[in-house]
Amino acid sequence: SPHFKNIRQMLKERLPSEVYELLRKVGEVATEKGINAYVIGGFVRDLIIGRKNLDVDIVVEGDATELARAFAKKIMGKVHIFDKFKTATVTLSDGFKIDFASARTEIYRAPGALPEVDTAPLKKDLFRRDFTINTLAVKLNGREFGKLIDFFNGLKDIKEKKIRVLHALSFVEDPTRILRALRFAVRYRFNIGKHTEKLLKIAVRKNLFRTVEGKRVYLELKHIFEEDNPLRIVNRMEEYGILKAFSPRFIWNRKKRDFFERIRKIVNWHKLTFNKHKANYSILYFAAFLESLPADEVDRLLKDFSVPDDEANLIKNLIYRGRQLAVKLERESFSNSELYEILKREKEEMVLYVAARTTKEDLKHRLLEYLKEWRDLKLVITGNDLKEMGLKPGPLFKKILTELKHRVLDGKVDNEYDALEEEVKKILKKKKLEPV
Ligand code: ATP
């Protein structure tokens, strides 16, 4: 029988009060409708562990779309129904989202069979999940609000820091869970349970990845590369022989590990420096991951993983053009303005990749400086100043401003206005023109 415990107090203390109130409201509406509603999965896991997670997944014993509609009405949110799966998303006016899904219910019932206990659909739904730590549910209905429902000892496994599957065929049913196990183990610093580890090793040995749609493997790899420390996860993949299952030619050595570590530092720097415009960080790791493979093998994997064309092209660009660019920048020495001209049409990811790829500290430093300072350098002088000097707007404007920018980048300008005058004089002399 499931282990019950009330964690209402924990919800109240650990959640932002708006989120707590929303859960209360879901519970109220559910009770009015006579439907059982639960918040489940990663949200509950992370609440107990104490990690921020506001992905609210509600599972309903009954029609989730009905509850979602009524809830949206109550809070004046928008509801989006996915009829095919009987799921719905409610979006609040501030953009906050809550997902609703219907627990899988039994369709066939033997005539005269005992009525099922009211948690049976929920239990069946939770039994399909990957690990015990993801099977916790919290009931939201009225007086029972906060009741923790734990059919599979998830709470104990969180306390013991263990990743455990729910049954022996779990990895056979879905081999992508192998990658998920390693990801969660590293993220939470949990161990993989002994029996679970045995099953995982068997699944790898049987090369069960072949049986999965490549796209799903790719999505899990992307999740890995979105984690804070992908290096430690890939190390574990190597230990279990998973890399060789992807490609026998896979190499995971000191050089690769150092590359990953440098990407991590650059990514952290980038996140701190620019909180506005984000880059596609996972793609940097993915390119580094594939880099040492022969080109035909890179192509095969991108195809097997059904990587969309635009992403595949970016990955290949990072690998091959990134390599050329790194070699070129390491070999010759460029002035700031030359570097600016080389980089200005490159994607953010390319500059980050080259900065991570190089072991030359001083080049890395200049590349990051390019992103932080030079790229968006605004001159004090604008086209208006040129007009005031009596110049007619045209291609010459751009030329003068670019030249000026180069000189500023190269540290050759004390005062932009003086520099402008010099520049204009020079150009006019060359063109043998007189100001209007
Ligand atoms: P994260 O914090 O990385 O978002 P999450 O647990 O919320 O972790 P999701 O990938 O969003 O991860 O999955 C949501 C829920 O769906 C999980 O809690 C898990 O129980 C379940 N789930 C996801 N993928 C699988 C799978 N391959 N097999 C079984 N259950 C899965």
Q: Could you please describe the fold and organization of this structure?
A:
By secondary structure, the chain is an alpha+beta fold. Among the domains are: 3-160, Beta Polymerase, domain 2 (2-Layer Sandwich); 383-431, no CATH class. Helices cover 56% and strands 10% of the residues. The protein has helices at residues 8-14, 17-33, 42-49, 64-75, 120-127, 154-159, 170-173, 176-188, 194-205, 214-225, 230-239, 242-246, 254-273, 281-290, 295-304, 309-331, 336-343, 348-357, 361-374, 383-388, 395-409, 416-431; strands at residues 3-6, 36-40, 56-61, 78-82, 87-91, 97-102, 137-139, 147-150, 162-163, 191-192. Strands 1-8-7-2-3-6-5-4 form an 8-stranded mixed β-sheet. Strand 5 (87-91) and strand 6 form a beta hairpin. Helix 13 packs antiparallel against helix 14 and helix 17 packs across helix 21 (395-409). The longest helix has 23 residues, at 309-331. The protein is globular, with a radius of gyration of 29 Å. The N and C termini lie far apart (92 Å). The protein binds adenosine-5'-triphosphate. Adenosine-5'-triphosphate is lined by residues 41-42, 53, 55, 129-130, 134, 174, 176-177. Adenosine-5'-triphosphate binds next to helix 8.
Which keywords apply here?
436 residues; alpha+beta; Beta Polymerase, domain 2; 22 helices; 10 strands; 10% strand; binds adenosine-5'-triphosphate
CATH superfamily of the domain at 3-160: Beta Polymerase, domain 2
Mean pLDDT, all residues:
90
Largest sheet descriptor: 8 strands, mixed
- What portion of residues is helical? 55-70%
Shape: globular
In the sheet with the most strands, the strands line up as 1-8-7-2-3-6-5-4
User: How many strand elements?
Assistant: 10
CATH topology of the domain at 3-160: Beta Polymerase, domain 2
* Annotated CATH architecture of the domain at 3-160: 2-Layer Sandwich
Q: Which band does the percent of strand residues land in? A: 5-15%
The stretches of 5 or more residues where confidence is low (pLDDT under 50) are none
Distance between the termini: 92 Å
Radius of gyration: 29 Å
Bound small molecules, by name, code or SMILES, are:
adenosine-5'-triphosphate
CATH class descriptor name of the domain at 3-160: Alpha Beta
Instruction: Count the DSSP helices.
Output: 22
Give the class from helix and strand content and strand pairing.
alpha+beta
